[in-house]
Design a protein that fits this description.
Structural class: mainly alpha
Largest sheet: 2 strands, parallel
Distance between the termini: 16 Å
Order of helices and strands: EHEHHH
Helix content: 25-40%
Number of strands: 2
Number of domains: 2
Radius of gyration: 18 Å
Strand content: 5-15%
Length: 103
């Protein structure tokens, strides 16, 4: 690759979490920034503390901490659901941007 490899990047995929927002250099290069949901869907656990969730769903919270692959968050995702969604997203990105440098 000749020149500055950063100039070859056309899209930056990043999560919705604040700490993963695109770095300021994206503005300099004029990249298209695409948000990708990377976190698990916490369903009814959303905005609850672990103690609050455990009070309402003790068996599920115990499973989450001891065997997370067996836990199904009420109204949310399992780890299998998350993996399937993540792979679908990554595969879709790769198909759309075949031959491009991804970041």
């Amino acid at each position: 690759m000749n020149g500055d490899p950063w100039r070859s990047i056309r899209v930056c995929f990043h999560g919705l979490l604040g700490r993963l927002r695109p770095w300021p250099g994206i503005l300099i290069f004029g990249l298209r920034s695409t948000q990708v949901k990377i976190d698990i869907d916490y369903g009814e656990w959303q905005d609850l503390t672990p103690a609050e969730a455990k009070e309402r769903w003790p068996e599920v919270v115990d499973a989450w901490y001891n065997a997370p692959h067996t836990a199904h968050i009420p109204g949310g995702e399992t780890l299998d659901d998350l993996r399937a969604r993540a792979l679908k997203t990554v595969n879709g990105c790769l198909l759309q941007l075949a031959g491009s440098l991804l970041a």
